[in-house]
Design brief:
The strands form four sheets. This protein has a six-stranded parallel sheet with strand order 5-4-3-6-7-8, sandwiched between helices. The protein has a six-stranded parallel sheet with strand order 11-10-9-12-13-14, sandwiched between helices. α2 crosses α3 (about 80-90), α11 packs parallel to α13 and α12 (about 295-305) packs across α19. The two termini are about 45 Å apart. With about 600 residues, it is of the alpha/beta class. It is flat, with a radius of gyration of 35 Å.
Length: about 600
């Protein structure tokens, strides 16, 4: 009884927190609306007072000036009639509806009121146009519209801080999956680019500093539908601030943060809910994997590229000789350390005299053929252009290719505008930090089992990866099919529950066609997760159990056929047991009566 009471209290507390968060979102939106109205009234106060004063004087004067009624007697029009006349006169409507013709004094006053109202309206309209063009007012309107849009969201969304190249790639990929995204960026041009993007759903964007918790709250950090935070700006300090704010405010929400500094990464990893992505470190891991297990590297690159990506060529960097690394910055240091850890000889070329990578260092500009010649390019087997300047990297690659055409070339691309140049020079391996980040974040969020598969794959041997590549190409073609996960539980596979408990379902039976059980679906089982144990490329004879999670690769048609096996009792009986059962509820009832 006490346990039930505690569980009820916890559930009630969570509901209260959600209600409080929702009310906070509405309060924030109300504050933004109030601030916008206050700014409008403050800027338009003088013009509105001027218009009201002109209307008051005109109405009062017209009501006090005597006129002549149809009988020729002296008469006055009422305040309401004067207000009615001046209203349609000032609005330039001009109904012409009058109690009687005006006197000369009244016409003179109306003429004066008309010119006075024109001046007043010109002043008011000019002030209004100035207000509309005012940057602070436009920002207030944008903030009000943004907070209202975020507060009304009722489906899970990701909070993305930084809409650079990596953010753009991820937004497009997540939009294709139906995952909503909310974006914060300091660049107004990038946020305006969201309106020009061909997204399926509306992507709210806010111009602001993500390091400020105020903007994070406005973007929905406290919203109950916020399912994750992505800190992908180009500044490590900003990413650290976003990570700390999200981890402390919403410890239940996963955070993925980008950094190229090991010190910053250690600060981020102090929080349990944070995953750090370092593109330089990740490329070093890829490089070591390509050296030791080229098929595993090929499969990894293909899977991280996402559905529809063409299968990459098998890349096997040479190991019989020394490597040349040009540039000893953060990226160069990471690559040099990984190569030396793999047992390779490395010669470093760097222009900075304070560079101290150890033995085998050449001080000078690597784009200079005389300096590069000191690194023994004729006997080198590979070169890495690792500077943070694309022009230098391209020059280094061109010089190295001229000195040794057989050399394996790898490079770092820093700007998206240089993509065509690197493609033209035909490097063997290209590292684009933004794309590395986008691929890894996509793999972690889109299909959680895929990230577990990527972590487990290198330890399973290169032969397993080569076999999976061949099976994927044989069943699905040269382009990566869709990846999806199924969980063998009642909510997703209720037609198989009894058969799973009896141990009658094997993976091969599950992948039989519902139309012809002698034909196997063109689906590739990538991984079986049972508890904490992961089995890569499980065999067809594997007996499945309740609660198993499976990662599959295949086309949409096969996915729908597999879904019918999971949720239709008659299809499940035919596929697993080769039994024909009535498919409708009426026929099942009739067949039971006949059998009885």
């Amino acid at each position: 009884m006490r346990l039930a009471t505690r569980a009820f209290r916890k559930r009630l507390l969570r509901q209260r927190r959600r209600t409080d968060v929702t009310s906070l979102s509405h309060i924030e939106a109300s504050r933004q609306a109030s601030s916008t109205i206050f700014l409008f009234m403050r800027r338009m106060r003088a013009p509105l007072i001027t218009l009201i004063g002109i209307l008051f004087i005109s109405v009062l004067g017209l009501s006090l000036i005597p006129g002549v009624d149809p009988e020729g007697d002296r008469a006055f029009i009422s305040l309401f009639q004067a207000f009615y006349f001046m209203s349609y006169t000032a609005a330039t409507i001009g109904f012409g509806e009058l109690p009687w013709p005006f006197s000369s004094a009244q016409r003179l006053w109306v003429t004066f009121s008309i010119y006075l109202s024109v001046i007043g309206w010109a002043y008011a309209l000019g002030s209004l146009l100035t207000l509309i063009q005012d940057k602070s007012f436009r920002q207030a309107l944008a903030m009000q519209h943004f907070t209202r849009k975020v507060a009304r969201m009722r489906t899970p969304f990701l909070l993305l801080a930084g809409y650079g190249r990596a953010g753009e790639l991820l937004t497009n990929d997540f939009d294709a999956l139906g995952q909503q995204v909310v974006v914060i960026d300091t660049s107004e041009d990038r946020i305006e680019a969201l309106d020009l993007g061909s997204f399926r759903a509306d992507v709210p964007g806010l111009v602001g500093d993500a390091a400020n918790p105020y903007y994070l709250r406005a973007a929905g950090l406290d919203h109950p539908c916020c399912s994750g935070v992505l800190a992908l700006t180009g500044d490590d300090e900003t990413n650290l601030a976003v990570t700390m704010a999200a981890a402390l405010t919403r410890p239940d929400v996963p955070v993925i943060s980008r950094t190229i500094s090991k010190a910053t990464a250690e600060r981020m990893e102090a929080f349990d809910s944070v995953t750090v992505v370092n593109p330089f470190d990740r490329f070093g891991d890829h490089l070591r994997l390509a050296l030791n297990a080229p098929s595993s590297y090929r499969l990894l690159v293909w899977l991280e590229a996402g559905p529809g990506a063409e299968v990459p060529e098998l890349v096997q960097p040479p190991i019989d000789g020394h490597w040349v690394v040009c540039g000893y910055g953060r990226f160069g240091r990471e690559v040099t350390a990984d190569l030396r850890e793999a047992g390779l000889e490395v010669v470093v070329v760097d222009a900075a005299e304070e560079a101290d990578p150890g033995p085998g260092v050449v001080i000078g500009d690597a784009s200079d053929p005389a300096v590069l010649a000191l690194a023994r390019p004729l006997t080198a087997v590979a070169l890495v252009a690792a500077t943070d300047n694309d022009t230098y990297n391209l020059s280094i690659l061109a010089t190295a290719r001229r000195l040794n055409p057989k050399m394996f070339l790898s490079a770092r691309q820093n700007r998206q505008t240089s993509a065509a140049l690197f493609e033209a020079i035909e490097v063997d391996s290209l590292m684009v930090p933004n794309e590395v980040i986008a691929h890894e974040v996509y793999a972690q969020i889109s299909t959680p089992l895929l990230w577990r598969f990527i972590q487990e794959m290198p330890a399973r041997g290169d032969g397993c990866a080569a076999d999976l590549v061949e099976r994927l190409m044989g069943n699905c073609g040269d382009r990566l099919p869709a990846l999806w996960r199924i969980n063998l539980r009642r909510s997703e596979a209720y037609a198989l529950m009894r058969l799973l408990d009896e141990g009658a379902v094997t993976l091969g039976d599950l992948l039989r066609s519902p139309e012809d059980r002698d034909r196997q679906l063109e689906v590739v089982p990538m991984m079986l997760l049972r508890g904490d144990e992961a089995v890569l490329a499980p065999a067809a004879s594997t007996v499945l159990a309740r609660g198993d999670q499976l990662l599959f690769a295949g086309h949409a048609v096969e996915r729908r056929e597999l879904q019918s096996t999971l949720q239709d009792h008659s299809v499940a009986a035919y596929v697993v047991l080769d039994q024909r059962l009535p498919s409708s509820w009426v026929w099942r009832k009739l067949s039971r009566r006949v059998n009885d």
